[in-house]
Design brief:
Elements (H helix, E strand, L loop, with lengths): L2 H7 L3 H4 L7 H17 L13 H12 L4 H8 L3 H5 L3 H8 L1 H10 L10 H18 L2 H15 L6 H21 L3 H15 L1 H35 L5 E6 L2 H10 L11 E7 L2 H14 L8 E2 L12 E6 L5 E8 H9 L3 H4 L9 H19 L3 H11 L4 E5 L5 E5 L4 H8 L1 H6 E6 L2 E3 L11 E5 L16 H32 L15 H13 L4 H9 L5 H14 L6 H7 L10 E4 L7 E3 L11 E6 L3 E6 L3 H9 L4 E6 L7 E10 L4 H11 L3 E7 L7 E10 L2 H12 L4 E6 L3
Helix pairs in contact: 3-5, 4-5, 4-10, 5-8, 5-10, 7-8, 8-9, 8-10, 9-18, 9-19, 10-12, 11-12, 12-13, 13-14, 13-15, 18-22, 19-22, 20-22, 22-24, 22-25, 22-26, 23-25
Length: about 725
């Protein structure tokens, strides 16, 4: 690369010819920003050896192609100034105004903070960018332009860095470009990422496509000519474009459908751009008269746009030599949105706002991400939600009032409920699809009419996390469960500390750290000793097993003794326990305890089993049977963390336990076992079959819902009477 080329690329002239849509005053402001950025980056060079300023100029040029306003072009020129040159936000505000400074700040990575992992750094940087996007979508447009130019010029980097950046681009930036409708950017980022992640495969497929292009040129030219003649005869003015699948999409199709390259039939297609919306449907009629359509291969994305605002008619026709070819038909306004997405908002401001679906769709999606990030404090969890919501394929379902709701492919009724409103999701109990009752985990299909049934007393079920598809639903459920767990752990901690303190002959002081007088000072001293920020946090730590109630009670008793409090004889008598093992008092289990009390999955205790409770570190109270091997090992290692627990006389629900059944193999065996279990008035919640299904016997592992040990014994007796059952017994993991 010559010095003259470098100088040209680094000069403002490289950008000037793209700014003719701005007025003179705006161009002067952009030139000022260029001079500022040029001075800030003076002496800095890219890995390729070019002056660093060539990168901001190229990014600004891409933004100018989208016809973004002067503030965005200025921010693009200065987007690395804060990060790489030590320029402050205050300096930018004073010189270029607050809006431009806010955009630059949104683009700045969090390099000054120390993160434990690269993933955490990436997630935190992305959270900041999304916060800025909530205020100004131009942030993400500049970010995408920045990433596109970096990908175009990545040859100078070492191979492992290229692969890492390409993977990040494919995971995060490609789907964002798709969701914002930036089709050209989406395709190029996808193609460049694939080229750096799989260079050999990209090279082989590129050569194959090039060869095919030469072989099919005559056919493509023939189809184009016939189509143009058909529209001329119909007196319709349209533009006909040939289009070619990207190497990445060809590769994906080969992998997904297990095809060889020769079997991928729709490498080439055509795009028809008409003047108005109604002309699109007229054009469809012209094409269907010219070539025969393939049944089931027509999609109307004009009536029901994609989630990113994309609108077109898609139809697949049989061409003159008998192979399939896809046609996309759209109006000029739709074509602008399809290619430029949300950026078309700046390019076509004069068109009717109702026709501009992309910014509206994008705003809904961005608001959904902002809601998620407000509820999600953990960076990795946020990135997980983000990747889920970037899934490009959608299903379109209807509310009873015919409102269309777009959801990711695989979304369930719970996802739909949360898409309507978080209150509907939190309180949903059942649902109907097309008038028929269905399970909440049912996956939705396009065209389904969905009705959600709610109850005021209902609350989210933790098991929903196993099947929900959208980041919004997942974050709402997790947020609710975290709040519920905090309340329950606080209540359990207060109960355990009160019981442990009664063993010292004392009762819990009233109030909290904000209470005036001796009680408030006691709590303040105890909180400082425990290293907590508040009484509630200390009690929650006890409830979650992070602190031992007996230890906290002894410290509180010392503090109370210093203030003159003496043990009460009656309280001491009520709270006295055996001195053989440390004890926290007894907790009653009835099945309604929630997230802070778990029944151990290793032994699956049910009412009637002798039980003991283990206060795990941060897990809350875990209940084991006294004969459980896992529980015994925990007791030997950590005896002070065990507390007395007992069953309530009136449990509030059924409890799951595991039963192992050996059966003689034969036709209808499973049905007979299920019938026996049903006759014993219980349900199978899970079934697992061994690998020896082709032998004479098979082992079934069943998870059953029972009331208590007596009910379980009745179920096992009923199973043993079944002709195909050779052996039935309860088992632990």
């Amino acid at each position: 690369m010559t010095l003259a080329h470098d100088a040209a690329a680094a000069s403002f002239a490289a950008l000037t010819h793209k700014l003719d849509y701005l007025d003179e005053a705006d161009i002067r402001r952009v030139r000022d920003a260029y001079r500022f950025a040029d001075e800030a980056h003076l002496g800095q060079f890219r890995a390729s050896g070019e002056p660093y300023i060539t990168h901001p100029i190229a990014v600004a040029g891409l933004c100018a192609d989208w016809k973004l306003d002067a503030q965005a072009i200025m921010a693009a020129l200065m987007h690395d100034a804060m990060e790489d040159c030590g320029v402050t936000k205050i300096e930018l505000i004073e010189r270029f105004g607050a809006p431009t400074a806010e955009i630059v700040d949104g683009l700045t990575k969090l390099d000054k903070l120390q993160f434990s992992t690269k993933e955490e750094s990436q997630a935190e940087s992305f959270r900041k960018m999304l916060l800025a996007m909530a205020r100004d979508v131009r942030v993400i447009l500049i970010k995408l332009a920045d990433r596109l130019h970096n990908m175009r010029t990545m040859d100078a980097m070492v191979s492992h860095k290229r692969a890492r950046i390409a993977r990040e681009t494919l995971d995060i930036y490609v789907p964002i470009a798709h969701r914002l409708g930036l089709n050209q950017t989406y395709r190029e980022l996808q193609e460049l990422s694939f080229q750096y992640i799989n260079p050999w495969r990209h090279s082989v497929l590129s050569k194959a496509v090039k060869k095919t292009r030469g072989n099919r040129r005559d056919l493509v030219d023939r189809i184009r000519k016939e189509v143009e003649e058909a529209f001329h005869d119909a007196d319709m003015k349209v533009e006909v474009y040939g289009r070619e699948k990207t190497i990445f999409s060809i590769y994906n199709k080969m992998i997904e459908k297990r095809l060889s390259f020769a079997q991928v039939s729709d490498i080439f297609g055509f795009r028809i751009v008409a003047r108005e919306l109604l002309d699109c449907y007229r054009a469809l009629g012209v094409l269907h008269q010219l070539y025969k359509p393939l049944p089931g291969r027509f999609k109307d994305y004009i009536a029901i746009p994609k989630a990113n605002g994309y609108q077109s008619l898609h139809t697949t026709l049989v061409n003159p030599v008998g192979t399939a070819v896809e046609f996309q038909i759209r109006s000029q306004a739709m074509h602008a949105v399809a290619e430029k997405g949300i950026a078309a908002h700046w390019m076509y401001k004069e068109q009717d706002a109702a026709d501009d679906a992309s910014p509206q769709q994008a705003a809904v999606w961005l608001q959904s991400l902002i809601d998620i990030q407000h509820e999600t404090r953990d960076s990795a969890e946020f990135l997980e939600h983000l990747k889920i919501d970037l899934f490009p394929e959608s299903v379109y379902v209807l509310t009873p009032k015919s409102r269309i709701v777009a959801l990711p492919k695989g979304a369930t009724l719970v996802d739909f409920a949360y898409a309507i409103h978080s209150g509907v999701g939190d309180r949903c109990v059942s649902a109907k699809v097309n008038g028929e009752p269905v399970a909440l985990r049912t996956e939705l299909r396009s065209g389904d009419v969905v009705e959600i049934i709610t109850a005021a007393s209902a609350k989210p079920n933790p098991s929903w996390l196993n099947f929900v598809r959208t980041g919004r639903a997942r974050s709402k459920i997790r947020n609710y469960l975290k709040n519920m767990e905090a309340e329950e752990s606080l209540e359990l901690g207060e109960k355990l500390l009160g019981q442990a303190l009664r063993a010292e002959g004392l009762t819990l002081p009233a109030g909290d750290e904000n209470t005036e007088g001796a009680a408030g000072q006691l709590w303040q001293s105890l909180i400082r000793w425990g290293g907590n920020r508040s009484r509630d946090e200390l009690l929650a730590d006890i409830g979650l097993g992070r602190k031992i109630a007996t230890m906290v009670a002894k410290r509180l008793a010392q503090l109370m003794a210093e203030t003159g409090s003496k043990p009460d004889a009656l309280t001491l008598t009520l709270g006295r326990f055996s001195d053989e093992t440390p004890s926290h008092g007894s907790v009653i289990i009835d099945g309604s305890e929630g997230a802070t009390v778990q029944l151990a999955p290793c032994c699956c205790p049910v009412p009637g089993d002798p039980i003991a409770g283990y206060l795990g570190r941060g897990e809350g109270l875990v209940v084991h049977t006294q004969s459980c091997g896992v529980g015994k090992r925990l007791f030997e290692r950590d005896s002070e963390r065990w507390i007395d627990v007992s069953w309530s006389d009136e449990p509030t629900r059924l409890f799951e336990t595991a039963v192992k059944v050996l059966v003689a193999n034969g036709k209808g065996v499973l049905a007979q076992v299920a019938a026996s279990i049903s006759s014993a008035e219980t349900d199978i919640t899970h079934i697992e079959m061994g690998d020896e299904r082709l032998g004479e016997t098979a082992e079934l592992k069943l998870t059953l819902s029972v009331r208590d040990t007596e009910h379980l014994a009745d179920v096992i007796r009923t199973l043993k009477r079944c002709p195909v059952v050779l052996k039935a017994e309860r088992f632990s993991q």
